[in-house]
Specification:
Distance between the termini: 44 Å
GO molecular function: calcium ion binding; polysaccharide binding
Protein name: EGF-like domain-containing protein
Bound molecules: 2-acetamido-2-deoxy-beta-D-glucopyranose
Membrane topology: Single-pass membrane protein
Largest sheet: 5 strands, antiparallel
Subcellular location: Membrane
Keywords: Disulfide bond, EGF-like domain, Repeat, Signal
Structural class: mainly beta
Length: 355
């Protein structure tokens, strides 16, 4: 009997580990669906390039979505937006791409003369814009005021941030509230951003512990302020920035009126308008995955293959866009883990009908 119990425990343990494997695997249901147009290269180095993006003519939606892959100078090859020097680190079909952008720096010697001044700017293609929620305008320094200037539709927008401190001890790790670090939201729908840095006293009052200003519009999660940021940012050249893209300028309703230009090509796709208020994008319908911008790009998800995607107690049957739970012969019920499950015996209906 002891052995019996032991075996049971072992089996239970095995089941638990199998379940765990399933759970951790199922995080990426991303099967091998096609992401680029037929005969188009779907990656550059480590970065995958899904349509509407593409590396050559006929492979992208329009010029804005051209990705240039530099494989002569970089190993692994490095993708850039169009013919710009903006490197792409990832592209998502949810409407974002992540790029690297240089940070602005303004440094002084002890006597207050400027020794370094870098104020880079970035301009993204038309139809693209700097994501206003994932990115923040962040400024670091103890004698610093800065502007982030951008434009949209031929109008300029500017926002400012002031960061001061008198003593290194005043800096609080993780706190970006104006003492050594200042942060601001940026305006929606900006196509370009430039950060300019200024100083009140050329760092002469704080030169014992600080001699540089830094500024950037970057993915908020990529930077956490700490006292050591004052010196560490010296060695940082670039930080990630999240860019939004859209495939059309109008609303979904307007886009659907012209089937030849409508970008949601897959039969199982649907159109939506992003939060940033510009244009439209496509996604696969519930129960489908893949690339909604390609003909037949959305493929049925087999929920039965992934334990975490179905709620079936015993047997699962895949259907287009969904799944069914079934009970084995001799059982009845809805077959669901969170429902009635499968109960041994015939259903009540069957019992009652014959009388
Ligand atoms: C892809 O390339 C192959 C061989 O080069 C060609 O036969 C085929 O027609 C091409 N398909 C498309 C969709 O261009
Ligand atoms: C590219 O991907 C491979 C495997 O995923 C990884 O080992 C390598 O470090 C990556 N290279 C870069 C530059 O990210
Ligand atoms: C690759 O990058 C190098 C250095 O930035 C540049 O000189 C070269 O022209 C690029 N090649 C291509 C094909 O873009
Ligand atoms: C990004 O591109 C620049 C050239 O514009 C290059 O110097 C740099 O190494 C690239 N950075 C990464 C992380 O690939
Ligand atoms: C700025 O300060 C750092 C250390 O605080 C020092 O190493 C560096 O030489 C200083 N730079 C200038 C230009 O004074
Ligand atoms: C300030 O310091 C720099 C080097 O740190 C030196 O080259 C410059 O001549 C100095 N300027 C003045 C006005 O003292
Ligand atoms: C501060 O630096 C700027 C150059 O960045 C210079 O024009 C100005 O004269 C400096 N001011 C002082 C008080 O040193
Ligand atoms: C916006 O700012 C840029 C650079 O400062 C300037 O060249 C441009 O004329 C400005 N545009 C408008 C419409 O004010
Ligand atoms: C590409 O398409 C987007 C979305 O319709 C549009 O905003 C952008 O202006 C287009 N780019 C070019 C170069 O035509
Ligand atoms: C529909 O879109 C096509 C391709 O973009 C364009 O040539 C055509 O003029 C559009 N038709 C209408 C009615 O807007």
């Amino acid at each position: 009997m002891g052995l019996h119990l032991h075996l049971h425990l072992l089996r239970a343990q095995l089941l638990v580990s199998i379940l765990l494997i399933f759970v951790s695997r199922s995080v990426s249901t991303q099967s091998n669906f096609q992401i680029a147009k037929p005969n188009c290269t779907d990656h550059c180095g480590n970065v995958s390039i899904p349509f509407p993006f593409g590396r050559s003519e006929g492979c992208y939606f329009n010029e804005s979505f051209l990705v240039t892959c530099n494989d002569t100078h970089y190993n692994p090859p490095e993708p850039f937006i169009g013919d710009s020097s903006i490197n792409i680190t990832s592209i998502s079909l949810e409407g974002q791409l992540r790029v690297l952008q240089f940070i602005a720096k303004d440094c002084y010697s002890r006597n207050g003369t400027s020794v370094l001044n870098i104020e880079p700017s970035i301009t993204v293609p038309s139809g693209f814009m700097v994501n206003p929620t994932a990115n923040k305008f962040i400024v670091v320094g103890c004698d610093t005021y800065a502007f982030a200037s951008g434009y949209r539709e031929n109008r300029n927008y500017s926002t400012g941030c002031i960061s001061l401190c008198q003593n290194e001890d005043d800096l609080v790790d993780g706190s970006c509230t104006g003492v050594g670090c200042c942060q601001m939201l940026i305006s929606k729908q900006l196509r370009g951003v430039q950060v300019t840095l200024n100083s009140f006293d050329n760092f002469t009052r704080v030169s014992d512990f600080d001699n540089c200003s830094y500024g950037f519009v970057a993915e908020e999660s990529a930077f956490t302020f700490s006292a050591s940021s004052l010196s560490n940012l010296k060695n940082v050249e670039m930080l990630p920035m999240v860019i939004d893209w859209a495939v059309g300028e109008g609303t979904c309703e307007e886009a659907r009126n012209n089937i030849s230009s409508y970008a949601c090509k897959s039969e199982k796709s649907k159109c939506y308008e992003p939060d940033n208020g510009y244009g439209y994008r496509c996604r696969c319908q519930e129960g489908y995955e893949g690339n909604p911008y390609l003909d037949d790009g959305c493929k049925d998800i087999d929920e039965c293959k992934h334990q975490s995607l179905n709620k079936c107690k015993k047997k699962c049957e895949n259907t287009p866009g969904g799944y069914k739970c079934v009970c084995p012969k001799g059982y009845h019920g809805d077959g669901k883990k969170d429902g009635r499950g499968c109960i041994r015996g015939q259903s009540l209906i069957f019992k009652l009908v014959p009388g």
